[in-house]
Amino acid sequence: MSMNDREIADVVAAMAPVAVGGWIQRVYQTDESTVAFDIRTQGRSVWLVVSCRPQVSRLFFLDE
What we know:
Layout: H1 5-19, E1 23-31, E2 34-41, E3 44-51, E4 58-63
Antiparallel strand pairs: 1-2, 2-3, 3-4
């Protein structure tokens, strides 16, 4: 199932206050369709995970 524009906007809104001004430290490709970005910001790391697997696309933000 694809994500709709509202779901994507919700993830972006949740991560913007934390991730703006940060930089990507590392990128991990966890499988053929998933990438995890380690973003360093404000003295800590946060994660953005993007999957484009056809039936289970995902975009989520993890604040450690």
